[in-house]
Amino acid sequence: MNWTRGKVIGHGSSAIVSLAKGFTPEELSVVKTAELTKSTLLQNESRIHSSIRCPYIIQYRGHDVTFEDGRLMYNIFMEYASGGTLGDAIYRQGGRRRRLAEAKIKSYTKAILRGLEHLHSNHVVHCDIKGANILLMKDGEAKIADLGCAKRVTDCPSADSSHPVLICGTPLYLAPEAARGEQQSYPADVWALGCTVIEMATGQPPWPGLHDQVSALFYIGFSGEVPQIPCFLSEPAKDFLGKCLKRVPEERWSATELLNHPFVNGAEDVVTGEEHKPKLDTPTTVLDQGLWESRDGPDSAPKDLVQSSHPDSPSRRIQRLLGGFPISTAAAIPNWDIDENWMNVRSVL
């Protein structure tokens, strides 16, 4: 079939990600492309992704091979998520204290868990759960994306296997056993989910003091430590993270067990608008301990920044009128209906 390649929206380690029109009659799609002779990883992603059908995982729409600029290119197509990534959602909070409200964290975590439960029930390990690989749809629904590192459990060598173990994923989100080069199975995804919850809660990856990848792998694998759990989270949230961040993989709860945890399966919080209303900047009594707990840590925001994040401040009201995007970036929101910079592509298969 014929389709039209749009602008590049991302680069991976093994593929270029672009928009695509025409693969489905009415919707934009995303196409991941690699040169055919260098597309082993992309073809593996296609094989695994094509077997997955779940509302909490980005939909796979097929693949083809095209001839472009004198080269054969391998392409896989997926649904387009117009809401960006979880990282984008955190960034749109603005200010230094970029983090999501706990009600939002709970909602996104539950969706990720449902996607992981489906993957694991189909004997697939994602291997790279993190905020950048969780996409948000137009209605705000969260879906797992990027199965480029995914493996079938039957393809994962055990720690006592004679086959070499290939470490897949992002170092700061790797479970200790994966960082040590041991088996990377379902519990590794659960550890990475815990790291992603910390990312949503703090606005930064876990292990903020680790910057060198080799040092990070050694520390995560052998230090005996776990990422710090934010003190301002609710007790159910802290307990949930404790179940995810067990250094011994057999002690971590499974995705199915975590779906029954009170943090994601308890009574829904009452939320007004996008977030809980911020606490007052000054405690009214000595019992207002939650205020001081929320200010703990080296990344605490100055008083003026905390005030500027209030949902009724002029800047936040303007952001809501602009659809929630930061004022500085609202004018740059792309309009994909414009026909400029699109390239017709003819499939050879």
From TrEMBL:
Q: Which GO terms fall under biological process for this protein? A: signal transduction
Region: Disordered, residue numbers: 291-315
Is DNA repair given among the entry's keywords?
A: no
Entry's Gene Ontology molecular function annotations: ATP binding; protein serine/threonine kinase activity
Biased composition (Basic and acidic residues) is annotated at 293-302
Alphabetically ordered keywords of this record = ATP-binding, Kinase, Nucleotide-binding, Serine/threonine-protein kinase, Transferase
Q: Where does ATP bind?
A: 32
Nucleotide-binding found in the keyword field? yes
The record's section on PANTHER family has: CCR4-NOT TRANSCRIPTIONAL COMPLEX SUBUNIT CAF120-RELATED (PTHR48011), MITOGEN-ACTIVATED PROTEIN KINASE KINASE KINASE 19 (PTHR48011:SF4)
Name the UniProt record assigns to this protein: Protein kinase domain-containing protein
**Biological source species:** Nepenthes gracilis
